[in-house]
Amino acid sequence: MKFSDEVLKAYLEGKANEAEAQAIEAAVAAEPELEARLMELDPFAPVVQAVFEHVPAEMPQVVLPDPNAEIKTSGGPLRLLAVAASVAVISVSATYWVTRPQPMGWAEQAAIYQSLYAADTIAGMDSSEQALTTQFDQAEAQLGLSLRRDTLEALPGMELKRAQVLSFRGKPLVQVVFANEQGQPFAFCVIRQGEGAPSKDLKEAVLSGLATATWSKDGYGYMLIGDSDQTDLESKLDILTATFAS
Q1: For residues 122 and 84, what is the distance between their CA atoms, to the nearest angstrom?
Q2: b/e map of 170-202 (b: 16 or more CB within 10 Å)?
Q3: Residue 244 vs residues 151, 188, 221, 239: alpha-carbon distances, Å
Q4: Edge-to-edge strand ranges of the sheet holding 185-192
Q5: Which of 167, 175, 161, 166 is closest to 132 using CA atoms?
Q6: Can you tell me the distance from the alpha carbon of 164 to that of 185, in angstroms, rounded to the nearest whole number?
Q7: Are residues 59 and 19 in contact, defined by beta-carbon separation less than 8 angstroms?
Q8: For position 24, what pLDDT does the model report?
Q9: What CA–CA distance (Å, rounded) separates 158 from 233?
Q10: Which of 96, 109, 121, 144 has the most other CB atoms within 10 Å of its CB?
Q11: Burial per residue of 104-142, b for 16 or more beta-carbon CB atoms within 10 angstroms, e otherwise
């Protein structure tokens, strides 16, 4: 069936009767050339095309309500706007899912927290025997794990300053703070991940501007954090991994 430009424009403007609209829509399904003509005559086509150009190649399925359920029209701008709005919703949703920031893990959070520390932060900490004993008792009770205080106190070039209990998504996270020979803060963190948590080999990275090393074993995660991105952690890691991965 042949349709004049005037008839097609009337359809796009919502002026075609229901019989004409149904005939055009049926013809479009079978004739790609007719669809191309409609796109050429449709003032909203560039908008729809621009939206499609920004839709990522892969995106989660988005279930939208049928636009005809609420908008009853024989065609024209309202129907085209409904289609364009639906495509826009898909585009925005897809862009969110593709570009949304990934949630940070416990190591990233611990590094951010540690990056706020300075030499003055730890200089005034109460690191008396009584204070440390109380802190370690509380930390070990929360973790259900010995922190091997004797080993931590013997780390070369490190002065034990404090142990405090933090929390990450409901799991106890213990931060043990040290001062190195220059008075700069170091930290050794342990989190109880729970039974069934996978063991992970040692991984070194720079997080929040600090050199870090992480590993996991038997339901616990471990992390050593230096005082800068250039900190050499090797000598301390040898001791800690041998102690807390055996």
Answers
A1: 58
A2: ebbbbbbbbbbeeebbbbbbbbbbeeebeeeee
A3: 10, 11, 10, 9
A4: 159-168, 171-179, 185-192, 220-225, 210-217, 200-207
A5: 161
A6: 14
A7: no
A8: 81
A9: 12
A10: 109
A11: eebbebbbebbeebeeeebeebebeeeebeebbeebbeb
Q: Which of 9-18, 66-75, 95-104, 153-162 has the highest mean pLDDT?
A: 153-162
Task: Return contacts of 229-237, CB within 8 angstroms, 24+ apart.
Answer: 231/186, 233/204, 235/156, 236/155, 236/156, 236/158, 236/186, 237/202, 237/213
> Which residue(s) pair with 206 in the sheet?
211
Q: Which residues of 55-67 are buried (b: 16+ CB within 10 A; e: fewer)?
A: beeeeeeeeeeee
- Report the alpha-carbon distance of residue 100 to residue 152 in Å, rounded: 39
Task: Give the pLDDT of residue 245.
Answer: 76
Of the candidates 234, 242, 246, 115, the one whose C-alpha atom is nearest the C-alpha of residue 184 is: 115
Cα separation, 93 vs 81, in Å, equals: 18
Judging by beta carbons within 10 Å of its beta carbon (0-12, 13-18, 19+), is residue 160 exposed, middle or buried? buried
CA distance 78 to 85: 10
Q: Is 240:224 a contact under the CB 8 Å cutoff?
A: yes
Residue 80 confidence class, pLDDT cut points 50, 70, 90: low
Which residue type is seen at 88?
A
What is the SS3 assignment for 162? strand
| Nearest-angstrom CA–CA distance, 201 and 68 | 55
**Tokens (6 digits) for 89:** 């919703």
Q: How many residues does the chain have?
A: 246
